[in-house]
């Protein structure tokens, strides 16, 4: 992600609209039609505004304790019609529950709390993570 790790910051993603446009461009360049966005942690800065603005272009959304959930209102979340699987580890004592508190306003969501897993639950419990993810993907149209 631009501005994180060794990548330089980019003006184009400095705003919410810029991040939506950037992710939209990436998906178009990859030729992806109705993808499922899997969104761990910091990626929430890109995926949440995209979900709210263009969620109709997604087949599904899988937030994994993403950041920025508190930046949006219950009413904004309630307008989203994208099937959603909310995932987090039970040892993620801050970001996981905070994300759930905000994302619970998404209609038609399912929640999976992974036992004995931390913030990066997909690394702590990869088999459980993949089982939950694949189960969600199978039920999508």
TrEMBL record:
It comes from the Eukaryota. SUPFAM superfamilies: alpha/beta-Hydrolases. GO terms for cellular component: cytoplasm. It is found in: Cytoplasm. Keywords: Cytoplasm. Residues 71-126 form the AB hydrolase-1 domain. The keyword Acyltransferase does not apply. Belongs to the AB hydrolase superfamily. ABHD14 family. This is ABHEA protein. It comes from Baryphthengus martii. The gene is Abhd14a.
């Amino acid at each position: 992600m631009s501005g994180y790790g060794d990548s330089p910051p980019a003006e184009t993603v400095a705003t919410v609209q810029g991040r939506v446009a950037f992710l939209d461009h990436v998906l178009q360049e990859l030729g992806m039609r109705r993808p499922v966005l899997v969104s761990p942690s910091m990626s929430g800065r890109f995926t949440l505004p995209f979900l709210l603005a263009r969620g109709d272009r997604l087949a599904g959304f899988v937030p994994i304790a993403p950041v920025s959930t508190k930046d949006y209102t219950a009413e904004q979340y309630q307008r989203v019609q994208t099937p959603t699987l909310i995932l987090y580890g039970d040892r993620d004592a801050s970001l996981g529950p905070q994300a759930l508190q905000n994302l619970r306003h998404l209609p038609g969501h399912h929640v999976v709390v992974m036992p004995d897993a931390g913030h990066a639950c997909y690394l702590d419990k990869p088999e459980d993570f993949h089982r939950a993810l694949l189960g969600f993907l199978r039920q999508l149209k």
